[in-house]
Amino acid sequence: MRTGLPSDWTTFNRRVPGTGRRLRVHCSRDDTQWAELAPAYWNDALPDIHPFRESRAARVHLGRIATEPLYFKRFLSRGASDVLKHFLRPSRAMRACIAGEALRGLGFRTPEPRCVIEAPHAGAVVESALITRAIEDTFNLYDWFHEDCGEIQEKRDLLHAYGTEIGRMHACGIFHGDMRKSNALCHTGEGPRHFYWLDNERTRVGRLSQRRRVKNLVQVNMERDGVTRTDRMRFWKAYVPAAGIDVALARALRRRVLEKTQKRWHRLGALPSSGGTGLDVN
Predict the structure, then answer these.
(1) N or C: which end of the chain has fewer CB within 10 A?
(2) Mean pLDDT value across residues 68-85
(3) Same domain, yes or no: 161 and 39
(4) Tell me, what CATH number does 147's domain have?
(5) Diameter of the chain by CA atoms?
(6) What is the arithmetic mean of pLDDT over 265-272?
């Protein structure tokens, strides 16, 4: 299993023009253009990149370098607690890149990394960025279920493939930090479904605890619209054999996931609009 950055990567130290801020730039030895592009990106001076999504924790741009489509995800400081955390552990961009390498080493798919940029300050790296190749000819699962579920058989096949994929991940000891459907892409071509996993900065590979297994399954099960009880059970029936769990554990796990999902829905003041939480069968 891969446990670090790609083996052919190297590190450059650069400064941001006009600010003097230091950057650590990690990239492939065969793609050292990033040593010069990183300061311009940090100064918001790269042409041909455009805002895509933004939150309190991160800002994402979509753009191109030469002809290559890329996503630029910049992890922002979330306050003083971030400084304390990052004295003790790698930056979020670095963790996401390393976790992506670990997933690919186990046969799963994530966007290919092109560069990690870190901006150290006072001994900690609170702000960082991960640049990855954009995956074309894919759709976001959240959007698909909410906007266009396609034909019934297509939906059934997708749910079966999705349940099998997550079961395989759990069988390999993978915990995804945020397994909501918005963090999974699926290719649009014919043949077996291929999934690509995003936002891997909290992903862990090792021994999968039951607490983390339940957390992932609750994240999957929280969806409200576009997913019926039958859909949820189709996912579950694909997940169980792929995860390699026996009948007794599956029954106990299903109850726990149902209980946690219901608690979260009650806390949010809503219930799914399409047939309950979906795992409440004997």
Answers:
(1) C
(2) 83
(3) no
(4) 1.10.510
(5) 65
(6) 73
Those residues with Cβ within 8 angstroms of residue 14's Cβ, 6 or more apart along the chain or in another chain: 22, 23, 25, 35, 36, 38, 39
Strands (E), the chain: 9-15, 22-28, 49-54, 58-65, 68-75, 113-121, 124-133, 138-140, 174-175, 184-187, 195-197, 204-205
pLDDT attached to residue 68: 95
Last residue of a domain, one of 133, 151, 186: 133
Kindly state the DSSP code that residue 62 receives in the 8-state scheme: E
Mean pLDDT of 196-202: 95
Mean pLDDT over 203-213 rounds to 95
pLDDT of residue 280: 44
- Distance, CA of 146 to CA of 99 (rounded, Å): 29
Q: pLDDT tier at 3 (50, 70, 90 boundaries)?
A: low
Question: Per the structure block, which two tokens stand in for 114?
Answer: 């092109």
Tokens encoding 178: 């945020």
The residue type at 158:
L
Report the chain's terminal Cα–Cα distance, integer Å: 38
d(CA 244, CA 170): 9
Closest CA to 179 of 273, 92, 103: 103
- Residue that is written with structure tokens 């859909």 in the block: 231
Q: Are strands 68-75 and 124-133 parallel, antiparallel or unpaired?
A: antiparallel
**Distance separating alpha carbons of residues 162 and 78, to the nearest angstrom:** 33
205/240 Cα distance (integer angstroms): 19
Q: Which amino acid is at 97?
A: C
> Please, what is the angle between helix 152-171 and helix 229-243, to 10°?
40
Please report, rounded to a whole number, the percentage of residues in the chain having pLDDT higher than 90: 65
